[in-house]
Structures are given as structure tokens and as C-alpha cells.
Amino acid sequence: MTTLSIDTVSVARGPRNVVHDVxxxxxxxxxxxxxxxxxxxxxxxxxxxxxxxxxxxxxxxLDDRNLANQRPERIRAAGIxxxxxxxxxxxxxxxxxxxxxATYSLGRRAAADGLAYTLSLFPELxxxxxxxxxxxxxxxxxxxxLAQALVSRPKILLVDELSLGLAPIVVKRLxxxxxxxxxxxxGVLLIEQFAHVALSLAKAAYVLEGGRVRYSGxxxxxxxxxxxLHSAYLLRxxxx
Length: 240
Ligand SMILES: Nc1ncnc2c1ncn2[C@@H]1O[C@H](COP(=O)(O)OP(=O)(O)O)[C@@H](O)[C@H]1O
Ligand SMILES: [Mg+2]
Known about the structure:
Blueprint (H helix, E strand, L loop, with lengths): L3 E10 L2 E11 L4 E5 L6 H8 L4 E9 L2 E2 L5 H7 L1 E4 L11 H7 L6 H14 L2 H4 L10 H13 L5 E5 L7 H16 L3 E6 L2 H7 L2 E6 L2 E7 H6 L1 H14 L1
Parallel strand pairs: 3-8, 3-9, 6-7, 7-8
Antiparallel strand pairs: 1-2, 1-4, 4-5, 9-10
The site of adenosine-5'-diphosphate (ADP) has 11 residues, from helix 1.
């Protein structure tokens, strides 16, 4: 059982830091959420955790290893799977091939095991196995994207804007699966601009604004006191 520990991390996009001194813990077996307005630095932090944005300060620790500024393949092999904001399928490949592409670095046994695992999470995909990515509904595409991230049986799953562009009914379908994924021992980090779904799943919540953590505490407290969330968002609107 592994905790992802983001410790006093700053992240640069181009020449300037857009995330400053952020500390976030993602424990195993539960969902943690990061909320915050557009431009808060959420996606930059996600990309840093994937090895795709530059960490200028701090540590990204998993199993006592610092993964900050490691190569993306190495981070994935260490057990962190990141679904970046707006991740798309390869539209001309079938569901099967989209998933097989995601198993390329795994051995044969691990690949077969991972594929079976993802089909148990998303049994709908079996019927769509030979369909091209571009012919799938938005919800089915999001399932394949999540399956691609989970096929390697990661220790930590980080999803940036799961519900973006999806119908509420589709999001509702995905919620129990993410709860199951967490219950199986994986640490799940959900990054969302809109709070509702994330707060319903998460135990701990963080609010990021202006690249800094403005709130950290229980998701239940944030649900009961939405003004804590609104004050961070309003701050941003006044500043722009
Ligand atoms: N590729 C990029 N190059 C330079 N600056 C960027 C880039 N992407 C985002 N930014 C800047 O980084 C800041 C944080 O953006 P982002 O991490 O996307 O926030 P969020 O995901 O919370 O909306 C914003 O000021 C944004 O303009
Ligand atoms: Mg974003």
C-alpha cells in the first residue's frame, strides 16, 4: 500500500512558476480531490506528476523514491498513471488496439492480467472491442482512456477533469467504478474544476488557487461549508 506524497512542490510552465510550494498526500484505498478555478495550476501539477512539466522545487515521493523530473515512462513504471486533461484515444484504432498500445511496456502475463482487470471494471467495452475509437460515445471513450491508465495496475491513478464534456449520466456511471478502484487499494487523485462529483467520492480535499493550496481538509467539511470553496473562486474572479 503506497501513498503518493507531493511535498512542497513548485512547477514551472515556460520560464515562470505556476505552482508554488504545494503539499498534497494521496493515500492508498481512498479518493482525494484537488479543486480550483480555471488557471489555478491543477493541470500543471498533474503534468508534473506525470513527468511532463518541470518541477523546480520539492519532492514527488512514492515508496521513498523521489520521482520529480523523472522521465514519464519511469514514473509510470513506478506505479503512477496519469490521465491528463483532454486525453483522447487514437481515433482510427479499435478499442482492443487502444488498450494493447497501453500495455506495450508490460510483460505478456501482466498485459493479459491488466486487460482482464479493465474489462471487469468496464464490461461494456467487451461489446465494443472491435469498434474504432472515433465511433464510440463520449462516455465509452472516457472508459477506454481510464482503462488505458489502469491496465498497468498502478498504485496511484491521477485523473485531470474526468467529467469535462461528459453528460451527467455518464459521469454517474463512472463514479462507482472509481470508488471500486480506490477500494481495491489504489490511491485515486481526482482533479476537477466542478466540485460536486469529486466531493461525493473524496475523503480529503484540497483547493488550489493561484498555484497555492488555499484549503486542505475533509471533503465532508467542504461540502457542508461551500463558502470555503466559493471564497477561493471569487478571489480569482476579482483578480481577473
Ligand atoms: N503550456 C503552457 N505554457 C505556459 N504557461 C502555461 C501553459 N499551460 C498553462 N499555463 C499557465 O499556467 C497557469 C496554470 O494553468 P493550468 O495548470 O492549466 O491550470 P488549471 O488546470 O487549474 O486550469 C495558467 O496561468 C496558465 O496560463
Ligand atoms: Mg486544468
